[in-house]
Amino acid sequence: MTTDTADFPLATREAWAALVEKTLKGAALPEAHVGGVTVEAFYTADGSHASVAPILAARDLERPWDVRTAISHPDPAQANAEALRDLEGGAASILVRIDPTGVNGVAVGSAEALARVLDQVEPELATIALDAGFLGPKAADWLGAVAKASPAAKLAFHLDPFSALAQAGASPGPLEAHLISAATVAARLAETYPAASLFLASGRVVHEAGGEAALELGVMAAATVAYAKALVRAGLSMDQAFGRITLSLAADQDYFLAIAKLRAARAIWERIVEACGASAPAVVEARSSARMLSRMDAWTNMLRLTVAGFGAAAGGADAIVLGTFTDALGHPNEMARRQSRNAQLVLMEEAGLGRVVDPAGGAWAIEAMTDQLAHAGWAAFQAIEAQGGLLAALASGRIASEAAASLAARRASLADKTDKLIGVTVFPNAQPTPTPVAAVVAVPVEAPSPRLPGPDSRCPPLKPARLAEPFEVDA
């Protein structure tokens, strides 16, 4: 049986508009402003929204992205147990958060202590990433010692002094000196570990402080340029420098925005790399948003995290770090960690998200959002560069001010119910089930001081802020 398509009328924009207007009973076509982009009621392929996203590379059908789990238990022995359970339970790599105080990560202050955390973890099989703030260069050397000069070791040193400054509001010594120190250590380790990622160019600190996606992309781009320059000054070629930088962005429950943001990041990367005369593919690590989590009926965070994982995977992330649904309450127990791992495995193995190279490609709404975000992120990047670079822009207070204004506007829209948080501002659970967390005790350890000679660099801090916090009652 054959069907003549000529029998069907052409679906024009006017025809679709008539259907939408009929549904709206004569009301005007709505527009929404989300994350710095304008979302229209419907889209068509009329050429008004040209795609700027580069074609993503084909993925490994078995492991289309790297399932990465965060290790942050303050006790090194317990942190090691969590790492091994995660890797045995389906994770492909780990992200070790280091904090000698034990408050915000594993209490590690030496190569020996880090070796205890990584006991029986094979760096040739599982990528080991770090999150060490201003201790980054020292932690990178510790990880280098643990990897024992194996050229096949898959390491991600994730040096990122700009994010450390932005969140803390001050650096122990000049930020320029920290950048030089990080680049010097990175260049030395690059020779020993040819597969290692050196710097992390991240905009997540903006997101977690309430900033919109365009500013997050602009900070990511400015960090990319600053870190590439530092690596070139340390002796790497332009191709080598860009090839050793990983991009990092947040993914939250707005999966359309997350998909478009990750695709826009690649477009911005391509333009920067091309302008510098280099050639290197973008590598993106997406981490689930902490600002979207709630202490009220925290079980609903499972849904938020799963949707964030979907957005990151469909957006083409190379590695995804999903938090746990109890992160807003305390340290996760094993059940929470298992749920976080399994959410990604279901998306990967049962939903098959990695079987299509670019699942959102060709979807007019996503293409339009990608285009808007790429241009808005590039404009934010240009504004930062016009101020003299990321350090000057942070010190001026402009970035913190913009993030604070966005956070205030978002919380105001939640307060008047223009925007909604399920389980918090609407449909709160009258009888929430208690949420279990693990009991941990932070025991500080001695560690080398990250202080470098010279005056501290300062800026208004970009403090993490959860959207639900003002509305949480007896959580």
What key phrases describe this protein's structure?
475 residues, alpha/beta, TIM Barrel, 8-stranded parallel barrel, two-stranded antiparallel ribbon, 15 helices, 10 strands, 11% strand, globular
What does this entry look like structurally?
The strands form 2 sheets. The protein has an 8-stranded parallel beta barrel with strand order 3-4-5-6-7-8-9-10, surrounded by 7 helices. Strands 1-2 form a two-stranded antiparallel ribbon. The chain has a domain at 66-354 and 374-396: Alpha-Beta Barrel (TIM Barrel). It is an alpha/beta fold and 475 residues long. It contains 15 helices and 10 strands. The chain is globular and about 70 Å long. The protein has helices at 13-23, 76-88, 111-117, 136-146, 161-168, 175-192, 204-208, 213-233, 238-243, 255-275, 301-314, 334-350, 364-386, 390-396, 398-415, and strands at 31-34, 37-40, 66-71, 93-97, 127-131, 155-159, 197-202, 245-251, 284-288, 319-321. Helix 10 packs across helix 13. The longest helix is centred in the C-terminal third of the chain and has 23 residues, at 364-386. The termini are far apart.
Summarize the structure.
With 475 residues, the chain is α/β, with parallel strands linked by helices. It has 15 helices and 10 strands. The protein has a domain at 66-354 and 374-396: Methylmalonyl-CoA mutase (TIM Barrel).
CATH topology of the domain at 66-354 and 374-396: TIM Barrel
Helix count equals: 15
CATH superfamily of the domain at 66-354 and 374-396: Methylmalonyl-CoA mutase
State mean pLDDT (0 to 100 scale). Answer: 92
The CATH class of the domain at 66-354 and 374-396, by name, is Alpha Beta
Radius of gyration: 23 Å
Strand order of the largest sheet: 3-4-5-6-7-8-9-10
Instruction: Determine the N-to-C terminus distance.
Output: 61 Å
Overall SS class: alpha/beta
Q: Rough shape?
A: globular
Report the CATH architecture of the domain at 66-354 and 374-396: Alpha-Beta Barrel
